[in-house]
Amino acid sequence: MKLYRFLVSIILTLACLSSLSAQDVEEPEILSPYMEFKYLKNTEEQRILEAKIFLAGELGLIPIEGLPVSFYTNIEEPELLGEVFTNEKGIARYIISDDMILHVDEDNNWWFYAEFEGNEQYEMTMEEISLMDVNLNMSLEETEDGKMIYLEAYTVQNGEKVPVSDEDIYIFVPRMFSLLSVAEGYFIDGEAEVEFPDDVPGDEEGNLTVIGRFNDHWQFANVEKRIETKWGVPASHEVAESHRALWTQIAPRWMIVTLTIMLIGVWGHYLFAIISMIRIKRVGKKSK
Amino acid sequence: MMEIKNKNLIHDLTPEIVSTSRKWYFLFGLFVVIWAVGIYGLIQQIDKGHIVTGMRDNVVWGIYIVNFIFFMGLSYAGALISGVLHLFKSKWRAPVIRFAELITVISLCIGPFFIFFCIGRLDRLPFLFAFPRIQSPITWDVIAIITDLVGCFIFLYLSLVEDFAILRDTTAISIKPWKKKLYRILALGYIGTEKQYRIISQAKNIMAAMIIAIAIIVYSVLAWIFGVTLQPGWHSTIFGPYFVIAAVFSGTGLLIIIMQLFRKIYKLEKYITKKHFVNVGILLLIIAAFYGYFTFSDYLTKWYGSVKMDKILIDKLFEDYYLMFIFANYLGILIPLIIIGIPRFRTIRNIVIAAVIALIGLWFNRYIIVVPTLETPFLPIQDFRMDFIKYSPTWIEWALTAAGVAIFGIFMMLVSKLAPLVSISEMEDSAESEIL
Amino acid sequence: MASDEKSGKSRRKFLKSIGTGLGAISLGGAGAIAGNKIIDASGEKVKVLTAEGEVVEVDKNALKEVKRETNEKREAAREGLPNRKFIMVIDLAKCANARKCVEACQEGHMLPQSHEWIKLYSIQDAEHTSPYWLPRPCFHCDNPLCVSVCPVGATYKRDDGIVLVDSKRCIGCKFCMTGCPYSARTFHWEDPEAEVPDDHVYDPELNIPPVEGTVGKCVFCADKLRNNELPRCVQACPMGAIYFGDLVEDAITNGVETLRFSETMEQKHGYRYLESLGTHPSVYYLPPVNRLFDYDSGLEGLGEQDRERYKNTGPRDAKK
């Protein structure tokens, strides 16, 4: 009897444990997102860190909103720069303040690190980038040879200005969804000269923004300078209100005229018939 | 007072006005049952959506539109027989014109309902009048059909005025007092004076001309609903005249059938004789010849030129729609031509058979105009669902087709209670110049 | 319960079909109650029929608010975006029938499985030419036959080139469907049973929810364009075969690379499908030369229904 009770209690305990562990398995699956980490130095010389967190869905990337991203710098002694929450596009943006002096390592590079710690829904994800600061200047001049863009770039290494050489730089124009590359330049000894093409459409007056940019550069990441100028071809698309076609709101004139003439013609005769009927009635009454 | 010389006319031509026979009730009941089945189908369609029909994303217009064109085509009986013969002042038309005008008005009333069955959002029908677009062939169609309906109605009424006056004043048969009162109102005080006769004749002449013009316009507009699209088989320059000829063909065919029907039912053999059948039959013959010519011309040019899409369409007609094509475009034309063309075959019975074949052939003709084109679009139908690849009408669509025919019968029968089905005044007029 | 729902639904439809008119406002009304809108109560109550078939009392101003916003959206949808002329370029050398464009479009517009606003055809032009995959969205033609034949102006072309359907005005005559030579339009033959949030304002640029008895078609995701985002099919295509852009700006992008439209047309000989029909489409194709994926890779991994779909494709008159 005692053995029987002992065995039953062992079996019951095992059953309870197994059901507990079964409960563990029933927990919701934790998703693992991806992070895209970018650095941009914009035209106002602001240094911007952008971390985008998304899931790789069946039909494209699904951004995740509301996740806290912590940005760090200094590979030797990581310092927290700040924490930003991702917006509805999944992007957390941190602007490094202008007076913040960043630590450079022995290769003269800055090191940045972005991390999302993870929560109950999403796993932790992080990315790091390492880049060298470059100073870029751009000026535009319209000469006899055409519209010329003059670019200067130099890095500061050990307190000395080192001109940039053997590097590509691209000239972009902002379009509705993205940047369009219109020309390409090459730095020799810190200077590059690019001719801006004559046939790039601007707005109705020909205004556009010229962007000189190191784009996803292996060393400099993204650095750009923007200047607004009137170097575009004036382009607009207006359909006159008075445009008449088969598919516009207002019909072509000949259609309206034809239809009116026909309708008046036919219904006029109907009116005549109805008036005849009234006349018959009147004559009938009179004859009584 | 309206006096007519031949009192027999009133006796013979007004059987149903006096009393209702048992035959009438039986037939009427049958029609109502058929119509009710159709209405039940319609309610199913409104409730569950158009998915209950056979129409799908490629063949978006099925036998509802076929019936619409068919019924609108029947209305040509009035335009041709009444209108043209009236202007030509043909003597023999007298017993026939009332049928023609009635067919016209009734089928014009029924036709638009088939469009309504095809419209996805019936509750938004008033938008056709609130937000019309003049560039759309459907707007032209709405305007044209309303104009045609009003015009044919006026024409019918004008021809009924004299009969109403006769019935109002007659003592030859006993008419219920409420009907007498109705006739008094509807007769517009017509008492047959010189002046009144002149006014009404003038009005009828003008309306007859209008009817012909309007009928041609209405049917051309209907043809252009198909003709202005780019679809292979529809984008044909001949469509306007082709549809008009086909409509006259169908109207004439139906007229012959109705003539025989009522002649038998109401024993009007004295008034509707073989001569009338032969005359209308010859009209049918001429129209059949024209119709055959147009059909041949249309298909010859398509086949010879063998533009890719035209060739695919013609192949489909000869493969999937072989029987319908042969019946519609060969038998439906040749049999009437032979029967009526050869004097030996010209009996009343044969002429009616020819008319029936012509009418059925014309329905098939409409079907093979509407449906195969939609089954062969420019971008091939690549689908796994059979009902999206091939159109097959469901019971609801057939039920509503039958209901349309039933309603036609119902209206005819209701009118027979109020108005003589053969125009008494016209018979009187024609008798004065010709001894029956 | 299913039967209650069904009877409720048929009751609602029946009332709609006899045109109570409150039907359209009722959804908005129910929404205005549930949505967190602060609207000055006029104090005047109106009885409306909600989507579930219940009669509730709603403040009159709440109804007006949603209706006003809906009408604003419908008017803005007719205006379009200023100074733009949208075009799409599809690179047939990259299309491998992945069908992600179809799925993204269906998801974004709450379409039932059977409705495809962008459709993938297997085309073989002639007996000795090679078959290829053709994604066909609505071409938003510059001479749109569908717009010309609409009797009530429910479909219209805006100045920026996009052709939309206002499913609050469409009467379902399907003339536009016979007018379109590219079979680009679909019809909701039955109740699509799509649920929208209670305070949903109808916008023809997004065109949800689908309405029974009306016509629907690709809208170039005009709602996304207002936020400078690419259409759903463009974003979803894993091969980057679909490019979208603005003719005025002369730029097209597939999300990854941005090209000049005029250069692309010139270098790769872009063309429009069935140009001879004279409809002037806004969608251009780049011929399938130097293909990234061969035709057969488009047949791999297809479900049974899709395999059935493409079974008999080949030159249309190959047999003769």
Brief overview:
With 288 residues, chain A is α+β, with helices and mostly antiparallel strands. Chain A contains two helices and 16 strands.
> What is the oligomeric state here?
heterotrimer
| Order of H and E elements of chain A | HEEEEEEEEEEEEEEEEH
Rg estimate of chain A, integer Å: 37 Å
* Count of alpha/pi helices of chain C: 10
Class per helix and strand makeup of chain C: alpha+beta
Low-confidence runs of chain A:
none
Mean pLDDT of chain A, as a whole number? 88
- State the end-to-end distance of chain A: 126 Å
The helix-and-strand class of chain A reads alpha+beta
Q: How many E-type strands of chain A?
A: 16
CATH architecture of the domain at 34-131 in chain A: Sandwich
- The residue-averaged pLDDT of chain C reads 83
Order of helices and strands of chain C: HHEEHEHEEHEEHEEHHEEEHEH
Walk across the major sheet of chain C and give the strand order: 12-11-10-3-13
Tell me the strand percentage band of chain C: 15-25%
CATH class of the largest domain in chain C: Alpha Beta
Shape of chain A: flat
Largest interface: B-C, 53 and 54 residues
Describe this structure in words.
The complex is a heterotrimer of chains A (288), B (436) and C (320). With 288 residues, chain A is α+β, with helices and mostly antiparallel strands. Chain A contains two helices and 16 strands. Among the domains of chain A are: 34-131, Immunoglobulin-like (Sandwich); 135-229, Sandwich (Immunoglobulin-like), CATH 2.60.40. Chain A has helices at 2-25, 253-287, and strands spanning 34-41, 47-57, 60-63, 68-73, 79-85, 91-96, 110-116, 125-131, 135-143, 146-157, 160-163, 167-174, 179-187, 191-196, 208-217, 221-229. In chain A, strands 1, 2, 3, 6, 12, 13, 15 and 16 form an eight-stranded mixed β-sheet that branches. A four-stranded antiparallel β-sheet of chain A has the order 5-4-7-8, with no helix packed on it. In chain A, strands 9, 10, 11 and 14 form a four-stranded antiparallel β-sheet that branches. Chain A is flat and about 120 Å long. The N and C termini of chain A lie far apart (126 Å). Chain B has one domain (7-433): Formate dehydrogenase/DMSO reductase fold, CATH 1.20.1630.10. Helices cover 74% and strands 0% of the residues of chain B. Chain B contains 18 helices and no strands. The mean pLDDT of chain B is 89. In chain C, strand 1 and strand 2 (55-59) form a beta hairpin. In chain C, the strands form five sheets. Chain C has a five-stranded mixed β-sheet. A two-stranded antiparallel ribbon of chain C has the order 1-2. Chain C has helices at 2-17, 22-34, 60-79, 100-108, 145-149, 175-179, 222-225, 232-236, 261-268, 304-309, and strands at 45-49, 55-59, 86-91, 119-123, 132-136, 155-157, 163-165, 186-187, 215-216, 242-246, 251-253, 258-260, 283-286. In chain C, 28% of the residues lie in helices and 16% in strands. The chains are: A alpha+beta (288), B mainly alpha (436), C alpha+beta (320). Chains in contact: A-B, A-C, B-C. Chains B and C meet through helix 3, helix 7, helix 8 and helix 13 of B and helix 1, helix 5, helix 6, strand 8 and helix 10 of C.
